[in-house]
Design brief:
The chain has 14 helices and 8 strands. By secondary structure, the protein is of the alpha/beta class. It has 3 domains: 27-184, P-loop containing nucleotide triphosphate hydrolases (Rossmann fold); 188-261, Helicase, Ruva Protein, domain 3, CATH 1.10.8; 267-340, Orthogonal Bundle (Arc Repressor Mutant, subunit A), CATH 1.10.10. A 5-stranded parallel beta sheet has the order 2-3-4-1-5, sandwiched between helices. Strands 6-8-7 form a 3-stranded antiparallel beta sheet. A hairpin with a 6-residue loop joins strand 7 and strand 8 (337-340). The longest helix is centred in the C-terminal third of the chain and has 17 residues, at 226-242. The two termini are 40 Å apart.
């Protein structure tokens, strides 16, 4: 930002992806993750970690924060994968290799996954690495967890909203992850959210342009979700800057609170092509049974040149769409009826 700004000092601080120089109200979780990864400092394997808790409770921020610390003290390779966007074994391995500095041209259908695994194994022959798999419950194929835990010097940080996210994985995969340190991230209270956005204002905004009472209003509106609170703060700051104001007015905060992006809207752009087709199929229809949705999905996928998916993957997609509020369901098993959520 340039010197003429009246509101924003550093816009990056007001984004959810920013890694702060300190983390508040997560001392216990911070110590636990540090302890789990500390063996790498002595050239030993670290412990796998599973972070779980509601959206906006600091799981991703904490994981990335600890990895940034670790890189300052050890020559460790790190990779961050969002499993909403990279769900298949191939995509995950491809992106990990890219994060590790391997630049190569590869066609999705032209290079076997096993070759990527072999490349990763060679890359890590003399290096330890930590891989974050965020939104791990959205994995298309949980075999990637077996693949990664089978490579020496690889440690994984899994992140999910629910503690039961991987309960339906194959026994051999659950066995590999049984010794993972399970760390819960409880929902923030209003005071903790206030402290988080207050900390962001001190680094991201020019002093004196937002009142504590306004930050309290933001904190109360976000239901313990720090990500929502930070987004509200960014929206009102940008709007005030664009309107050439000298401070942030209450009216903008009220509007931002009422119009803040919902979880559904935040996730729509992250849906994969098959999930978007499911939404398209259900639009304009009161409801459809599971079998009908599956058959129409396969037909549309074929017409659009997409790969057909197996029944297990279809059920995983439907469960995810229901979980995140896109689709409503009624009934059980094969008699389940689906409709678009209102």
């Amino acid at each position: 930002m340039n010197g003429e700004n009246k509101i924003i000092r550093n816009l990056e601080v007001l984004t959810e992806h920013f890694i702060p120089s300190r983390v508040v109200h997560r001392d216990g979780q911070l110590k636990a993750i540090r302890d789990d990864l500390k063996p790498i400092l002595n050239e030993m394997n670290a412990r796998n970690v599973f972070l779980y808790g509601s959206p906006g409770t600091g799981k991703t921020c904490m994981a990335r924060y600890v990895l940034s610390e670790l890189r300052e003290h050890a020559p460790v390779l790190t990779s961050y994968i969002n499993c909403w966007k990279c769900r298949s074994r191939f995509k995950i391995l491809f992106n990990i290799l890219q994060d590790f500095g391997m630049r190569f041209s590869v066609h999705r259908r032209g290079q076997p996954t096993d070759e990527l695994l072999e490349m990763l194994g060679k890359k890590l022959k003399d290096s330890y690495c930590v891989i974050i798999l965020d939104e791990a419950d959205q994995l298309e194929d949980a075999r990637i967890l077996y693949d990664l835990t089978n490579i020496p010097k690889v440690s994984i940080i899994l992140i999910a909203n629910n503690e039961t996210a991987l309960y339906d994985a194959e026994p051999r995969i659950r066995s590999r992850l049984m010794s993972s340190d399970r760390i819960e991230f409880p929902v923030y209270n209003d005071k903790e959210i206030f402290d988080i956005v207050k900390d962001r204002t001190e680094w991201g905004l020019i002093p004196g342009i937002i009142k504590n009472s306004q930050l309290e209003s933001i904190a109360k509106a976000c239901n313990g979700d720090a990500r929502v609170a930070i987004n509200i703060l960014r929206i009102v700051s940008e709007d005030s800057e664009n309107q050439d104001l000298d401070s942030i007015p209450d009216k903008l905060i009220k509007n931002a609170v009422s119009n803040v992006t919902s979880k559904k809207e935040r996730r729509m752009e992250d849906l994969n092509p098959h999930e978007k087709l499911i939404i398209k199929i259900l639009k304009g229809k009161k409801s459809l049974d599971s079998g009908s949705v599956y058959r129409e999905l396969q037909e549309l996928a074929e017409k659009q040149g997409l790969e057909k998916i197996v029944d297990r993957t279809f059920r995983k997609y439907m469960d995810g769409l229901v979980k995140h509020g896109f689709v409503s369901s009624a009934g059980q098993s094969r008699w389940r009826i689906y409709s678009l959520a209102e």
